[in-house]
Each structure stands twice: as structure tokens, then as C-alpha cells.
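Bump. Still looking for Helix-turn-helix domain-containing protein C-alpha cells.
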Amino acid sequence: MIGLSELGTRLKEARIAKGYSLEDLQDLTKIQKRYLAGIEEGNHSMMPGPFYARAFIKQYAESVGLNADELLEQHKSEVPVPVKEELKKPLAPSTPSRRQTFAKSSSRGVGEVMPKVIVALFIVLILGVSWYFYKSLDTNDTAEEVPEETAGVPYEEPAEEETPPPAEEKPAEAPAEEKPEEPKEPEAAIKVKGTQGETTTYEWSGPAKRELTIKASGASWVSATDQAQKELLAPARTMQPNESEKIDVSSASQVRIRLGASPNVQLAVNGKPIEYSQDLITQNIVIQFTAAE
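Sorry for the wait, here they are.
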């Protein structure tokens, strides 16, 4: 592959014109000095991969005041291109076996017979209930007939029952005082405030105690700073697959996250995920915090 000598020369000249040393550019871009030197020398084989080579070149160009997209377009034959994996073809559905076919036909036969069985049971149930009520009525009529042994017996009035004294009324209990309800925790909400280039700004409102979660599903370069450009992820680095960081951002009014491979990184605040509104590989996510109403 052709080296990056011409592209590296343009970037180096722009850096010198800005008065930056490699150390200054390292502090500005958070890219290691050896990678910056490799870009200027055209040695992209030392990069973590073709994707990172493009991302680092783009950051380098933006930091020295060059148009990164135009520069990459002019030198696209010199810049390594990430290779996308082909999707695996779905397997053809398997042919059902004779046992499965027999099971399906058997279940179909049972399904056809079952409604007839249910109707027959329902009819038997109605006949049983009718017979039960008929026997109950016949028993009641027999019980109402006066037996012959009671004929001629003089009638005696039943003795008067003594009326019990009225029960003393108990004083009504005072209603229990209702405890005041505790204030509920405000619900978290996040929405896109606007986009500009590679930067998307979000507005987040919710509890005063906030925790930012950064979880990598694949290799990606990540940095996080607050409104005063203070590093929150120490150090800014390439996070590896299944690596995660939790950062307390309760005292921050704004957080800026720089992602080198945004599809490989999931962001969340208090467990509420941040959905990317731009389908970009390299992008900036700015979250502005406000108190919930």
C-alpha cells in the first residue's frame, strides 16, 4: 500500500505553521505521540487498525485547522479503508421428519374431536343440574306435610323470650393521622438539543445525583471532560471489549464525550441510555444537565 508521505507532509507543515509540537498536539487531541509521528511519517501499520488510522488523521487535521473531509477525499487512495464483514446467509429451513408430520396430523384430529366432546359434557352437566333441582323441590314438598303423630296435640304458645339489655355504646375512635407523603424522586428525561458537524448536544433533566456509564462492546478510543475541560476518564484511552467505566457527574453542569468508534460504545446516565441521533463513526456527545421541574 502507498505510504502516507504526502498526506503526512501536509499535516506536519500545518502543525508547524500553528506552532505546535508533537507534545502539544498530543495534549490537544488525546492521541499518543507515537501515533501522531506515525501519521506524519506515513507509517499507518503501527495503528490499532485502518479505522483508527482514519479517525486519528481526521482529528489531527481538525486540530491544525485543515478541512478533514476534504483532505481525506483528496488522499483517499492513501488512506486505509476499514473492511466490513459480510453478513452470514441464513440457513435453509429443515424438512420436517415423518414423526413431526404424524404428530401434526394427530394433533389436528384431536382438535377436530375436542369441540364435540365439550358439547356432550355440557349437555350432561345441564341434565345433572336439572335433576338435582327436581329432587330438591320434591324433598321440600314432603317436609311441609304434617305428620299423623301430631294430630290432636293441643297447641302451646311459645314462651316469650327475654329481651337482652341494650349493649353499651363504645366511644368512637379518633381517626388515625395520615402521614405526609414523601417527595418522589424526579423522573429522568433526555432529548436532543441540536447537532453541529460531528457534535450532538443533549439536554438531560432528572435527579441531582447523576452517574455516567461508559460500556464498550468493541475497541474504541474514548475521552470524557466536564465544562472546565477537566478529564473525567483518567486516562483517555482505547477501551477494550466488555470494559466499562462509571463516573459520578453530580457536580458537573456539562459532559463532553469524544468517541473514536461510536457503534462500539454505549452511554447511559442513571441507567437511561443515550441514543445516538447521528450515524457517525467518530463523533462528540455533549450532555447538558438541568434540574427537573
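Strands lie at 189-196, 199-206, 211-216, 220-226, 237-239, 244-248, 254-259, 265-269, 272-273, 283-291.

Edit: fixed formatting.
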